[in-house]
Design brief:
Blueprint: E1 2-9, H1 15-25, E2 29-33, H2 35-38, H3 41-50, E3 56-60, H4 62-71, E4 77-82, H5 85-93, E5 100-105, E6 113-116, E7 119-121, H6 123-134, E8 138-141, E9 150-151, H7 152-157
Parallel strand pairs: 1-4, 1-5, 2-3, 2-4, 5-8
Antiparallel strand pairs: 6-7, 8-9
């Protein structure tokens, strides 16, 4: 499996993914790595409805995602989506060799601080993002591929 884009986005599959990120990733497959979605038939149906018919969609739990990626020796170009920094760190700690993560959207919630309009974080997010950075994975913020990339660690260090 060739993961061409690894993205953090709480919304998982939505318009920006369909109209911009699938083409940018040149992806034939989307993997949504999310325990909640993997165990919720209604959410699975909604994610399938949002995915173009030409794209294979797998909605897997976190452990199953790691196992599937490690076992897949194909060159299938894949867009990997997780909901937040905690899940991204879980992918890295699970042994996936990934060099860069795109942070697309971490929503506003009580107790989170606004960094950008699409990036709201709390202390747990900061710890997880810093751990990801410490193992050599680059973190960039962009909502769409043609937007200017910004370094997440520089933004949260201000």
């Amino acid at each position: 499996m060739n993961i061409t884009v690894f993205r953090i986005d709480e919304r998982l599959i939505h318009g920006q993914i369909v109209t911009a990120w699938i083409a940018y990733a040149n992806a034939n497959r989307i993997i949504v790595a999310d325990d909640k979605a993997a165990n919720d038939e209604f959410q699975k149906t909604l994610l399938q409805m949002a995915t173009p018919k030409t794209i294979e969609l797998q909605i897997l739990g976190m452990d199953e995602t790691i196992r599937t990626i490690k076992e897949d020796t194909s060159d299938t170009k894949t867009l990997l989506l997780v909901r937040g920094p905690k899940e991204a760190l879980q992918m890295i700690e699970g042994g996936l060799d990934l060099k860069e993560i795109n942070v697309g959207n971490i929503n506003m919630k009580k107790g989170k601080t606004k960094i950008l309009g699409n990036l709201w974080i709390d202390d747990e997010d900061i710890r997880n993002l810093n751990k990801i950075h410490e193992v050599g994975v680059a973190l960039e913020v962009r909502t769409v591929p043609n937007e200017r990339s910004q370094d997440v660690i520089k933004l949260i260090s201000k």
